[in-house]
Fold:
Amino acid sequence: MGTFLVSGINIALPSIENSFSLKAIELSWIITAFILATAMFLLPVGKWGDTYGNSKFYKTGLIIFTLSSLLCAIAPNATWLIIARFFQGIGSAFSSTTGQAILVSTFPAKNRGQVLGISVSSVYIGLALGPFLGGIIVQQFSWHILFYIAVVLGIIATIVAFIFLEDDKKEIHEKRRTKAIDTLVFMSGLILMTYGSSQIPSIFGWSMLTSGVILLVIFCFLETKIDKPMLDTKLFTRNKLFAFSNLAALINYTATFAIVFFLSLYLQDVRDMSPQMTGSIIIAQPIMMTILSPVTGKLSDKIQPRYLSTLGMSICTIGLISLSFLNETTPIWIIIAILVWVGIGFAFFSSPNMSTIMSSVDKSRYGQASGIAASMRVFGQIVGMTIVTLYFAYLFGNKAVIEVDNALFLTAMKRGFITFALISLAGIYFSFTRGNVNR
Structure:
């Protein structure tokens, strides 16, 4: 449900741009608002789930996501849509964090890799259907229909959850009073950093970006002084397997998230392709992820996950380097081949890496570990989109993507992919040196 919408909206960006006459920076906020809200609530929800029970937060997330999808569908202007997308991100945070924790606590450790592989595969089915069906829907009907589909899926998922998913009362740990100061500092830092990046190169933008980074540093310091922190820093300072696996995830998502964003604009604005054709091309990456994730997840139950994840990260790095060479005449078969290659890399990385993260903590911290792992994914997406926004702001100024010439857009895309490839190289190190899972 969530990933179908995320990938489908990427295909719909040019249509939304035309509907509301958006500038390049404004257009990026259609994506950024969602992932910013998700990032703000993942860690708190992970902690709340461990304290009060994961099931109730999972169900609450489905309700919020469904209602906000309806608000997106009827959005009369861009401001409304961006605000509704923000609430969609909150709903996504509630359900995605607690969903992983529920799965891990339900199945025995020997099946953990396989179960998470199936879960990741279902996520990738949404990613695969999004570009293909999204392209058809946007071309034949309207981008609004994507959100109406999310409403229908949300209603079905909510009904199923309330019928079959019992409240995990036996797993609720002792309720504790928690202070909100660290949560407020954390959320404020994310907002300032993300919004500031969209205002660069102005002094105001740099000031906000710097202030946001400082607040996040202060948040990390506060967490070391709080008895029951939202982010247990000891998991990073005393658990190398957990720390390096999360850093690898952060780097991987930073490096790969903007691929679909860039290619959607590239194929439709530079290559003048229809939304349907664009979706048919971009689907190559998530299809490979969908097919291979259950396989790599099961393999990680038998082979040390770091070898599989390192291989996946290396494949993704080569793919990012290849994408930096795209131009106005690159044959379509080459683009599809690169996306297939990146999809294979992502499948080898994701499931084994998630299995490692969840295997490195005890059962009482599944919710927090899941929240941190999901946060790494969304933080990576925010950093990735922040890098894209920086290049757009620096090169495009206050122009829409469709208003800049192709050469300038290709320059921004090339610099973006080179930057992401360099970031991905660091991920290879963390993935390989994390150590082995204790069976």
Summary: Confidence is low (pLDDT under 50) at residues 170-178. The radius of gyration is 20 Å.
